[in-house]
Amino acid sequence: MVNKIERSVLEKIAVIGGGSWASALVKILSENKSQVHWWMRNENDVQHLTNYRHNPRYLSGVTYDLNYVKPSTDLRTAVEVADWVILAVPAAFIQEALSGLEKDALNGKVLISAIKGMIPKQNILITDYLGQQYGVPNSHQLVVAGPCHAEEVAMEKQSYLTIGSYDLATAERFCELLRNRYVKANPLEDLDGVEYCAVIKNIIALACGIARGLNYGDNFQAVLVSNAMQEIERFLHAAMPIHRDLNGSAYLGDLLVTAYSQFSRNRTFGNMIGHGYTVKSAQIEMNMVAEGYYAVQSIYELNKKLKVNMPITTAVYLILYERIAPAVEFEILKEKLT
Ligand SMILES: NC(=O)C1=CN([C@@H]2O[C@H](COP(=O)(O)OP(=O)(O)OC[C@H]3O[C@@H](n4cnc5c(N)ncnc54)[C@H](OP(=O)(O)O)[C@@H]3O)[C@@H](O)[C@H]2O)C=CC1
Ligand SMILES: O=C(CO)COP(=O)(O)O
């Protein structure tokens, strides 16, 4: 019988993406002695990692053990040698990032989406895209959810991850690869619900940031977030109606951390919009991706069919895409909250 550590040594994992979340996941997995084939698009970053054991532009304080981490710009090889493939590129760029792969390149592998966004224009979840484009069955798909900022992983602060799935046994195997001194991981049988919730909570965090930028206070934000939870519940009920406990950390927990944390990109982006930045200038200033900016368009479009009452999502959409002044739109929104 192979014990837990020995079995982990044998695990071969491809991590696709060179940003903050990929950097955090590579830290966790490689410290647990999985073999991580880490794809990033920038050759200079690969060279820097190989020479100095740090990712130069994201979580640059983390040191990687190159016995377990193999950085590369060669996507095909990274995927070919791996049994598990983790996607950690922002949703808007995932099609481009995977474009070098053959249609059958993901056959037999377990795909794990760590992405909290949707495919723009097609307005579909990442797991649906992987099914449609690469034929990955639901049983071979997992999603990483839960309130967890990369920056806190880098600092080894106690964190919790939930692995959403259709197949609890596979999710549990992946949880074993993640668990360590500062990470607890739990499987959950709700792939789509967890994935949609992670998308929508980013939109809500944008709203919280906008509110803060407009000088609304804690009283308003508490109402905004509790109304948001109801908005999420209505959406999930219409889109994926199964019984789920939305008080769980994969749902409410992730909403709270993103709405309140200093590390949230979405909240920071929203705050800049509330302060009067244009979308372009906020994107340039932040230099990281706020998924909610893209997601709000997808959810807004999708909701034209579902017709769920989503006042917060609608307000964020109108501000970001129809250029309605944040102060004007929030005057309207505040009358709709209870
Ligand atoms: N950061 C976090 O704490 C968490 C993030 N997530 C999710 O993880 C996903 C990744 O976000 P995160 O790591 O934070 O993003 P970052 O903003 O930290 O990094 C973005 C990454 O995407 C890369 N990129 C940009 N354009 C392209 C492209 N066209 N093709 C390939 N790669 C590209 C960037 O490369 P380059 O630097 O070369 O431009 C960079 O590596 C998102 O869906 C996010 O919601 C989930 C949980 C926590
Ligand atoms: O999903 C996250 C934390 O759980 C990250 O949120 P941000 O992208 O807003 O930083």
Automatic annotation (TrEMBL):
<protein>
    <recommendedName>
        <fullName>Glycerol-3-phosphate dehydrogenase [NAD(P)+]</fullName>
        <ecNumber>1.1.1.94</ecNumber>
    </recommendedName>
</protein>
<feature type="binding site">
    <location>
        <position position="265"/>
    </location>
    <ligand>
        <name>sn-glycerol 3-phosphate</name>
    </ligand>
</feature>
<feature type="binding site">
    <location>
        <position position="58"/>
    </location>
    <ligand>
        <name>NADPH</name>
    </ligand>
</feature>
<keyword id="KW-0444">Lipid biosynthesis</keyword>
<dbReference type="GO" id="GO:0141152">
    <property type="term" value="F:glycerol-3-phosphate dehydrogenase (NAD+) activity"/>
</dbReference>
<dbReference type="InterPro" id="IPR008927">
    <property type="entry name" value="6-PGluconate_DH-like_C_sf"/>
</dbReference>
<dbReference type="GO" id="GO:0005829">
    <property type="term" value="C:cytosol"/>
</dbReference>
<keyword id="KW-0547">Nucleotide-binding</keyword>
<keyword id="KW-0560">Oxidoreductase</keyword>
<dbReference type="GO" id="GO:0008654">
    <property type="term" value="P:phospholipid biosynthetic process"/>
</dbReference>
<dbReference type="GO" id="GO:0051287">
    <property type="term" value="F:NAD binding"/>
</dbReference>
<keyword id="KW-0521">NADP</keyword>
<feature type="binding site">
    <location>
        <position position="116"/>
    </location>
    <ligand>
        <name>substrate</name>
    </ligand>
</feature>
<comment type="function">
    <text>Catalyzes the reduction of the glycolytic intermediate dihydroxyacetone phosphate (DHAP) to sn-glycerol 3-phosphate (G3P), the key precursor for phospholipid synthesis.</text>
</comment>
<keyword id="KW-0520">NAD</keyword>
<dbReference type="GO" id="GO:0006650">
    <property type="term" value="P:glycerophospholipid metabolic process"/>
</dbReference>
<feature type="domain" description="Glycerol-3-phosphate dehydrogenase NAD-dependent C-terminal">
    <location>
        <begin position="190"/>
        <end position="327"/>
    </location>
</feature>
<feature type="binding site">
    <location>
        <position position="93"/>
    </location>
    <ligand>
        <name>NAD(+)</name>
    </ligand>
</feature>
<keyword id="KW-0594">Phospholipid biosynthesis</keyword>
<feature type="binding site">
    <location>
        <position position="291"/>
    </location>
    <ligand>
        <name>NADPH</name>
    </ligand>
</feature>
<feature type="domain" description="Glycerol-3-phosphate dehydrogenase NAD-dependent N-terminal">
    <location>
        <begin position="12"/>
        <end position="169"/>
    </location>
</feature>
<dbReference type="InterPro" id="IPR006168">
    <property type="entry name" value="G3P_DH_NAD-dep"/>
</dbReference>
<feature type="binding site">
    <location>
        <position position="146"/>
    </location>
    <ligand>
        <name>sn-glycerol 3-phosphate</name>
    </ligand>
</feature>
<feature type="binding site">
    <location>
        <position position="116"/>
    </location>
    <ligand>
        <name>NADPH</name>
    </ligand>
</feature>
<keyword id="KW-1208">Phospholipid metabolism</keyword>
<feature type="binding site">
    <location>
        <position position="264"/>
    </location>
    <ligand>
        <name>sn-glycerol 3-phosphate</name>
    </ligand>
</feature>
<comment type="similarity">
    <text>Belongs to the NAD-dependent glycerol-3-phosphate dehydrogenase family.</text>
</comment>
<feature type="binding site">
    <location>
        <position position="150"/>
    </location>
    <ligand>
        <name>NADPH</name>
    </ligand>
</feature>
<feature type="binding site">
    <location>
        <position position="41"/>
    </location>
    <ligand>
        <name>NADPH</name>
    </ligand>
</feature>
<dbReference type="InterPro" id="IPR013328">
    <property type="entry name" value="6PGD_dom2"/>
</dbReference>
<dbReference type="InterPro" id="IPR006109">
    <property type="entry name" value="G3P_DH_NAD-dep_C"/>
</dbReference>
<feature type="binding site">
    <location>
        <position position="21"/>
    </location>
    <ligand>
        <name>NADPH</name>
    </ligand>
</feature>
<feature type="binding site">
    <location>
        <position position="116"/>
    </location>
    <ligand>
        <name>sn-glycerol 3-phosphate</name>
    </ligand>
</feature>
<feature type="binding site">
    <location>
        <position position="150"/>
    </location>
    <ligand>
        <name>NAD(+)</name>
    </ligand>
</feature>
<feature type="binding site">
    <location>
        <position position="266"/>
    </location>
    <ligand>
        <name>sn-glycerol 3-phosphate</name>
    </ligand>
</feature>
<keyword id="KW-0963">Cytoplasm</keyword>
<dbReference type="Pfam" id="PF01210">
    <property type="entry name" value="NAD_Gly3P_dh_N"/>
</dbReference>
<feature type="binding site">
    <location>
        <position position="20"/>
    </location>
    <ligand>
        <name>NADPH</name>
    </ligand>
</feature>
<comment type="pathway">
    <text>Membrane lipid metabolism; glycerophospholipid metabolism.</text>
</comment>
<dbReference type="GO" id="GO:0005975">
    <property type="term" value="P:carbohydrate metabolic process"/>
</dbReference>
<dbReference type="GO" id="GO:0046167">
    <property type="term" value="P:glycerol-3-phosphate biosynthetic process"/>
</dbReference>
<feature type="binding site">
    <location>
        <position position="254"/>
    </location>
    <ligand>
        <name>sn-glycerol 3-phosphate</name>
    </ligand>
</feature>
